[in-house]
Design a protein that fits this description.
Layout (H helix, E strand, L loop, with lengths): L14 E2 L1 E5 L7 E5 L2 E5 L4 E6 L4 H9 L1 E5 L6 H9 L7 H4 L4 E2 L8 E2 L4 E12 L4 E12 L18 E4 L2 E4 L9 H26 L8 H22 L1
Antiparallel strand pairs: 1-11, 2-3, 2-6, 4-5, 5-10, 6-9, 7-8, 9-10, 11-12
Length: 238
């Protein structure tokens, strides 16, 4: 297979396309679309977003040290793109996209009511990397839409129609190919299927009745009958 070597660049795709909301007290809230976002720790729950310093939202997040990551869906794709190419200095993105500011539970920054998942974050560290500065944040609360919860309280995130960003284009998640750990589960099932026939054979073998041993009297009777048959055959031949 032929390949080409390129200069260093970001080719880690797809990535999440999320709308990050933030606001200063007394000012209108703003939304910035971020693709450089991801989970960095499970316990404590932490994530990161990378933002260019010249962006309008950068100073807001740096000062307040709070923001909300709002997951996007197929229905929110247009708004997601708009909030990524227009500046909050010039327009009210909530008003333009007819989105509703949603009060958060743990922080002052608002979320987006139309988003099915709102992740409330507090900044713990800012890393100046180069073109982008990384905001490392702790997740302090998550709000999810009730319609995606089942009767057992399980949240079906993959039924939302989440949107991903890949090389300048937006995509909805497609066909399910497997689940975490399915490669190991498959091997286990194969081993179990191989063992089952063996167990069956043992059971069948053990289930057969053993041949009954004849008693001494029965043995003598059998010998007598054989001798008698031989004599009868000889008489018939003579």
């Amino acid at each position: 297979m032929a390949k080409q070597f390129w200069k260093a660049g970001n080719m880690l795709y797809p990535v999440p396309a999320v709308m990050v909301s933030c606001n200063r007290e007394g000012e209108k809230p703003n939304i910035i679309t971020v693709a450089w976002a991801g989970t960095v720790c499970t316990n404590p729950a932490m994530l990161s977003i990378s933002v260019r310093p010249e962006r309008y939202s950068y100073d807001i997040i740096k000062e307040t040290k709070e923001f909300v990551v709002n997951l996007t869906t197929k229905e929110l794709t247009y708004a997601t793109d708009y909030c990524g190419v227009r500046s909050g200095r010039d327009v009210d993105k909530f008003a333009e996209m007819k989105l509703t500011p949603q009060p958060s539970q743990k922080i002052k920054a608002v979320g987006i009511a139309e988003s099915p998942v709102n992740i409330e974050c507090k900044v713990v560290e800012i890393k100046e990397l180069g073109s982008h500065h990384l905001f490392l944040a702790e997740v302090v609360g998550v709000t999810v839409e009730d319609s995606y919860m089942d009767e057992k309280g399980k949240f079906h995130l993959n039924d939302i129609g989440l949107v991903a960003y890949s090389h300048g284009e937006y995509f909805e998640l497609g066909e399910k190919l497997g689940k975490f750990g399915y490669s190991v589960q498959k091997k286990k099932s194969e081993k179990e299927s191989q063992k089952k026939p063996l167990k069956k054979q043992v059971i069948e073998k053990e289930g057969k009745e053993k041949p009954r041993k004849r008693k001494q009297g029965e043995k003598e009777k059998g010998k007598y009958q054989k001798k008698r048959r031989r004599k009868e055959k000889k008489k018939g031949l003579s």
